[in-house]
Amino acid sequence: MRQAGRYLPEYRTLRQGRDVLEMARSAETAAEVTLLPFRYMPLDAAILFSDIMVPVAEMGATVRIEPGVGPVVDEPIRRPSDVRRLRALDPEADVPYVLEAIRLLRKELEVPLIGFAGAPFTLASYLVEGGPSRNQEMTKAFMHSDPRRWDLLMELLGTAVLAYLLAQVAAGAQAVQLFDSWVGTLDPSDYATFVLPTTRMIFEGLAETGVPRIHFGVGTGELLPLMRDAGADVVGVDWRVPLNVAWERVGFDAAIQGNLDPAVCLAPWEAVEQRALGVLRRAAGRPGHVFNLGHGVLPGTPVATLQQLVHLVHERTEWVNDSAEEPQ
Questions:
Q1: Which terminus in the chain has less CB density within 10 A, N or C?
Q2: Strand, helix or coil at 47?
Q3: 173-217 per-position pLDDT tens digit
């Protein structure tokens, strides 16, 4: 989860005076940042360095990343006619730097590379709100007041996201993850009506690639069964739902990713170890658990803690795989 970020000193050096979107638009820089964590720990996969707003920035939205704030859209979509400002995405023409970064990384990596994209609802929320929003008031108002125009926006974004992820797979990504960071603000009924059809279209469109498809949202405990119905092979969960409960909601025939609270990693190692072992106990040695944080690594997280965490999980999961007993 956001492997290369503000917790790494090399990243902070590279970031000085540069916007995240500027860094993502350099294939060499994106590849370099993606590889940074491997200087410190033997991770089982790499996730491409980029930003979820990259495709919409190339579709005509005026996007900037404000330090300490996040994505800001200078001309938000506030009227139905504003949707027309966005154009279709042609990945080869619009985001060639992302595809080149993937090709460069495949030459360097000895572990699988995960590509990713922001999900249509989360992208729509930034476009409508103009930036991060705790409750998505304007987005929900748009959704309910003009469902037809909302559907057009979701169709446009869904088509772009599918094309973007397909291009990443064609360039060499060996798995793809769809991030729906803000969808947890919806209730199950609104999710089923206004989000699920587009998300399902994306996952169905990716099925032919044969690569694992991961679906992650924040605060989505009540949406987990619907997120599985969207068609992902792996459902990511944050720390708000115990892993075993989340897996029951998703179904044990699916894989699950999660779910250590990233804030715990700021605590002394003893607390991190206890909580990480709790996640493994709830996984109970079942196949299909991808141990991960429940969201991105927080700034200020000690690198040594993450190194110990990776070692602990490797040590314990190797032990579980060789034994019928549950980790203590």
A1: C
A2: strand
A3: 999 999 999 999 999 999 999 999 999 999 999 999 999 999 999
Q: Are 126 and 73 in contact (CB under 8 A)?
A: yes
DSSP 297: P
Nearest one of 89, 85, 65, 88 to 77, comparing CA atoms: 85
Strand partners, 57: none
Is the CB of residue 55 less than 8 Å from the CB of residue 96? no
Pick the closest to residue 190 from 251, 248, 124, 253 (CA basis). Answer: 124
- Cα separation, 1 vs 238, in Å, equals 11
pLDDT tens profile 306-319: 999 999 999 999 86
Polymer length in residues for the chain = 328
Query: What's the pLDDT at 321?
Result: 57
As beta bridge partners, residue 234 has 214, 255
Show the tokens assigned to 204.
Answer: 């169905």
Cα-only R_g, the chain: 19
Supply the residues annotated as catalytic. Answer: 2, 6, 15, 51, 126
pTM of whole model > 0.85?
A: yes
Pairwise CA distance, residues 46 & 36, whole Å: 10
The CA distances from residue 323 to 178, 274, 284, 291, 327, in Å, are: 34, 21, 11, 18, 9
| Alpha-carbon torsion (80, 167, 50, 204), positive or negative | positive
Residues linked to residue 167 through DSSP beta bridges, in sequence order:
none
Alpha-carbon distance of 143 to 147, in angstroms, equals: 5
pLDDT at 322: 56
Other residues' Cβ atoms within 10 Å of the Cβ of residue 278: 14
Q: Does residue 130 register a pLDDT over 60?
A: yes
Residue 220 is classified by DSSP as -
- Contact residues for 315 (Cβ-Cβ < 8 A; gap 6+): none
Q: Are 36 and 4 in contact (CB under 8 A)?
A: yes
Contacts (Cβ under 8 Å, ≥6 apart) of 13 = none
